[in-house]
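Re-running the complex after MR caught last week's input typo. The corrected sequence lines follow. Everything else is unchanged.
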Amino acid sequence: MLDDLDRRLLEILVKDSRTSLKELAQQVGLSSPSVAERLRRLEDRGVIRAFTVEIDPQALGYSLQAIVRIRPLPGKLHIVQKLIEEIPEFGECDKVTGDDCFVARLFVRSIGDLDKLLDRIADKAETSTAIIKAQPIRRRPPPLAATAISKP
Amino acid sequence: MLDDLDRRLLEILVKDSRTSLKELAQQVGLSSPSVAERLRRLEDRGVIRAFTVEIDPQALGYSLQAIVRIRPLPGKLHIVQKLIEEIPEFGECDKVTGDDCFVARLFVRSIGDLDKLLDRIADKAETSTAIIKAQPIRRRPPPLAATAISKP
DNA sequence: GCCGCCACCTTATTTAATTAGGCACGGCCG
DNA sequence: CGGCCGTGCCTAATTAAATAAGGTGGCGGC
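Corrected-run output:
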């Protein structure tokens, strides 16, 4: 489903998605049209979800991030979906199984803004256990190679 | 520090970082060399941290994600740094202020693997309050435009 | 054992990125 | 008030990359 060459290509692209086909080709030992074809298929299959840029939130003025736990009342799970759509400050949001809650990241400019957001969430949703300010110390994709814990 | 044109460029690139300079140029009403120059400066200033690809963890076999809370004993904060380096399953990890803990994402293939990892963390670090399995329902960058809460 | 398919190759063509050089606006100082 | 940088943009020319077309070999199915 995903051979070694694919993995090597992904590894390079995660580091720099502007790497040219030519460069990719010679790093894995293929021709550039072949690499292009492989990338196309990786996209088609959904392995590569998107080509994107990573932006520094601080550069946009979001000096603060909060990780919040949102627990809607039973049967009201859809409310979170709505909140995400309405509030652009939502970063990633994960539905957590077993606990019927969500864990989301909020990007904010100040504690004041955070308070306003939390009010708004607590208002429209049910309980939102506010949490905290966060300083990211690392951001990484899933591991591409075999790990000590498990082999692909 | 970051004008409207920059923001529009970023907005386009977040959606698809392979958008050509030519295409970017005509969308914002500049010439391609000017766009190139702007992008170069955005990178130099650290606004754009990286050009990258977003990979579907499932495609790599990581059908499970866990969000874990790690709270090292006082004075042992560096241990988390070490864990991150040693364990490729670590996704992003945030240092949380006020609570002296970390919140991290783990990519795993099975509950078994998760258990092994949690043991290893609880072993080397101090307390790790394991948490849960997560299903991402949305992944987003910080908001690029003004929001109802705050203006840039 | 032959047929057809798939993944790859090479070459040619089109398209995009880069480099070089020049022009206009605005700020600053004589 | 006028001249002089500096900056950000432009156009045009060059270089480099992506794409498209056509051909070959290896492998599985019939």
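None of the earlier attempt is carried over here. Residues 30-31, 33-34, 37-38 of chain B lie near DNA strand D (CB under 10 Å from a C1'). The radius of gyration of chain B is 20 Å.
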